[in-house]
What we know:
By secondary structure, the chain is mostly beta strands. The chain is 4% helix and 36% strand.
Amino acid sequence: MNRLTACGARLVLTLLGPTCFSGAVGAAEIVVGDGCTLADAIHSANDDISVGGCTAGSGADVIILTGDVDLTSALPDVDNGSVITLRGNGFRVRRLSSASAFRVFYVPVNGDLTIDNTIVAGGAADSGAGILSRGDLAITNSTITQNVTSGIFGGGIYSDGTLTLDHSTVSDNSAVFGGGLSNFGEATISYSRFDGNYAASRGGAIHHDGTLMLLHSALTNNLVQGDGGAPGHSAGGGLFAYFGSTTLLNTTISGNTIIDGNGGGVMAYYGSVTLENTTIADNSAPSGSAIFEYYSYPTLINAVVEGSCSGTIINGGNNIGCGFGGPTGLDGTLADNGGPTPTHALLDGSPAIDHAGPCNHPDQRGFGRSLHRCVTGTGGDQLCLDGLGDQLGANGVRARHRFGLGLGALLCGALGQGLRQRA
């Protein structure tokens, strides 16, 4: 029942960029519709039998949606060692507001679920209202939205297993801790956005106490109400990193707010936290509008930070802001500058221009910073520029675009997105 995809393992998909998902190789396909409900399809996949009007499952299975699914009762668990891929084709799986409270999907310890190109909405549960996973969960090209916990953890997603989130959006969910996500396991998030989520106490976008890698992503416009108290009691308008290990690379944290507490952008509490090629801007909190740390001593590398930092921040090199020089020279508008997630551009004359190095990995948008080689989709080599214009040099120098209408130069700068605006 091992899952294979045409592109290889999940982690490889995540790090290489847009998912070329095609489902499990040799899997049985179960099409929802014409007498086959989603509930019956999951039963068929779990037990390798035909239930209702559904095709019998066989090992790893692909369930295919042909329309929206509105739920009036809970779906079966992804159980019995099942390996299931839900291919949503852009359709929605939603608990109707008139139904009793239940979460949309549950993955127990021995379950394995991939959700692709699906909207998961309307869940209501004590934790993990959209999805609660203790097993293996992969979410690609999907939206998790408008799910609400009545308890504490994870409005959109609760995971204490293995989570991969790629090219997806988690928005407008709510909880006490982790409006978008509560992670207690191993989570890798790439090319994704957490936007407009709400937490009553900690982590408007993400509450985390495990292992988290946040790559080429954006935490934007999330909100924590908070009720004051000691450091860490109410904190983390964008991210609350609670113990565990946290790595952010090429990520933007912008427009997040905590009304009564600490750390508008990031709260780093005891655990190991590294922020590299990351931009933190336009966040709000009574204390530590950008970063508040408590016995965590987070390390910044090639970062641009606007706003106040509270506590001991380790300078890993080439930082601007947070006590390491400034001003940043950021455009204050969070905008679509290319790529799947929004970024802040750099203004002309910003000290972040040509400030950092080496530039040996793509920026937040997925565009290259320096001259290097890469493999095309057909397996051959090509000269990999930035996808937009000419490169003028390698590590540590800027690479200009030929737009003529607005964006100017792609930089090897301190911030993750590396954009400069032309005046």
